[in-house]
Predict the structure.
Amino acid sequence: MKPFYSIALLLLIPLMGLRAQKPIIVSEDSLKIGISTLPAIMVTIPEVSYDKALKDWIKLLQTGTKSKVVTENAEMSIFGAKIKDISENPVNVYSKFENGDSAIYLLASIELKKDQYIESATGEADFVKANNFMKEFAKSQYLDLAKDQADAEEKKLRDLQKELSSLENEKSRMHKSIQNGTSTIASEKESIVAQNNEITTVAAALVEHNALLATMEESPAKKEKVQYIKELEKRQKKAENSIQSSENKINRANSDIDKANSEIPRNEKMQDRVKEQIAEQEAVYQKYADKLKNIKSL
């Protein structure tokens, strides 16, 4: 690969503080196919996968024609490719990918007719079209990669936002649990007071009616008295059971309140940590979104 000519078209993407962003560079070069050295155009495609770019390049060259790309020793050729952006007539394309440290290099020699290759010296219009064609392919590859990167970082951001929302909902439920528990305790305490009053009333009635029962002879009236006393005892038992139920509810409510009060600080700390992660991830996502925007603007 010979040094770039001074007329090389530099398509530099503004860095904007984004270290991961690399330039797309289009320049004149040469391509060795077999024993021949052909005038060519070279484009750098930053960061992208070699295999994906190779697959997409072959697909692009074969679009609209029955001709197939033939590959031998990593050197590709296709005869009769239909590339409307370059020529209304079919062209022959010889090309090759080379790997670099942080980019791949695509070299392509385009033959308009036998032994007539596109190069700056033989026709500026065709040369510009070919440069644009190469640039647009590189740009599409870089866009695909940048979009995947931005989408991945956006998903991380959405996941963190969902986590924060879940924590906020959990905290809201805990506050609701405290409110419900407090309401339950107040309500059950009122119920206990009412049931204690019921027990006091029934106990006095039992003393009175048991005393009367002791003085009564066997008679239908005595049987009625016995039945009435049984009803009073049922009321007493029901009130006692109600008190026990209320005490159990109060104990459970206190337990729920204590649990919520102990977990809320932990929840708040987790929210603070996730909020920090969201702020960091927003900055990361914005860098990739800017990168995508800058590539689109080329």
